[in-house]
Amino acid sequence: MRVIAGSAKSLKLKTIEGNDTRPTQDRIKETLFNMIQYDVAGCSFLDLFGGSGGIGIEALSRGAGEACFVEKSRRAVRCIRENLAHTHLTERAQVMEMEVSEALRRLEQQGKEFDYIFMDPPYKKGFEEAVLRQLDQLSVCGEDTMVIVESSLDTEISDSWFQNLHVIRVKEYKTNKHTFLKKS
Questions:
Q1: Which CATH number does 1-15+45-98 carry?
Q2: Could you give the residue ranges of the DSSP H alpha helices within the chain?
Q3: What CATH number was assigned to the domain covering residues 119-184?
Q4: Distance between CA 68 and CA 57 in Å, rounded?
Q5: What is the pLDDT of residues 15-36, one digit of tens each?
Q6: What local confidence, expressed as pLDDT, does residue 19 receive?
Q7: Which CDD domains does this UniProt record tie to the protein (predicted)?
Q8: Which of 58, 78, 99, 109 has the fewest C-beta atoms under 10 angstroms from its C-beta?
Q9: Is the pTM of this model over 0.90?
């Protein structure tokens, strides 16, 4: 896994050994950032279920003003911190070692609002619906926030789950997909 573009272009990132995380493939990461590239510079980026930090680090490398990584695994948090140091992007990053729902509550209390919220939870465990329902009600996800969910191809995300969030686009790949949502 490597950084595709920007200030840390071509730097290799560490990943966590074992099956606890699934880093987004470089090809899929590149496609995702090609879709959002014109809005990343200066943005605030929230990377939920951060894993090794590859997506948030890509955003920082491409000029995001700040990125917040949320991950509960101590090993994964260590990996995120090492990757941030290796790419020289630590000063624009915040790493929260905790459950996503708790981190969202804390960020809400701090009055944070993000331009992008990316989440890549463990597949087939129902995290997508639970986290999206929480985001639907929080101001960390504002009207201009783009929420991007990476999930298995067979994971359904339905507008009927929400009062405010709506699916605006789905991009399918061979093994997974990205679902884009916004409040309206």
A1: 3.40.50.150
A2: 26-36, 54-61, 74-86, 100-109, 127-137
A3: 3.40.50.150
A4: 10
A5: 987 655 667 788 899 999 999 9
A6: 53
A7: AdoMet_MTases
A8: 109
A9: yes
